[in-house]
Amino acid sequence: MCDIENKVEKESIEPNAISRYKKREQAFILSFETLFSDTDIDELADNAVDGSDEYMSDYAISCAKGILEHSDEIDSYISDNLKKGWKISRISKVSYAVMRLAIYEMLYVEDVPVSVSINEAVELAKKYSIPDESSFVNGVLGTVAKKIDE
Predict the structure, then answer these.
(1) DSSP secondary structure string, 38-96?
(2) How far apart, in Å, are the Cα atoms of 35 and each of 122, 130, 139?
(3) Cα 88 from chain centroid (whole Å)
(4) Which of 57, 56, 58, 67 is closest to 98 using CA atoms?
(5) What is the pTM of this model?
(6) Terminal CA-to-CA distance of the chain, rounded, Å?
(7) What is the DSSP letter of 110?
(8) pLDDT tens column, 98-133
């Protein structure tokens, strides 16, 4: 079977086979890449698929696009909940991308509980950042969640 047929077959199987965590991880990676590139999300997703045998989920693409579309609002939640004197530019790009994804989910993805968004964000921060960053992410997102509930 040629590579194209493999990809088509894989695409018809994979959407239901990958976990929500994996889809969220893909969304984080796409969102992280947008911090360094003006490349269109669809092109970033195509490049990621071309560079591996992995399926890029619609959820990941949708979240990454949503984060860009609502970036001003999302960034405002982050800025408003940082310690006094801190600015977004001081946050690591990993933590920034993780928090943007979690806040996007809290605001715009109805079938994901806020606690799940926060827990998964902390797990992504643990995986992709230095140890102390996960506590920082948890703290900021916990405060954001309280403000969203108000």
Answers:
(1) ---HHHHHHHHHHTSSPPPPHHHHHHHHHHHHTHHHHHHHHHHTSPTT--GGGS-HHHH
(2) 20, 19, 22
(3) 17
(4) 67
(5) 0.84
(6) 56
(7) T
(8) 999 999 999 999 999 999 999 999 999 999 999 889
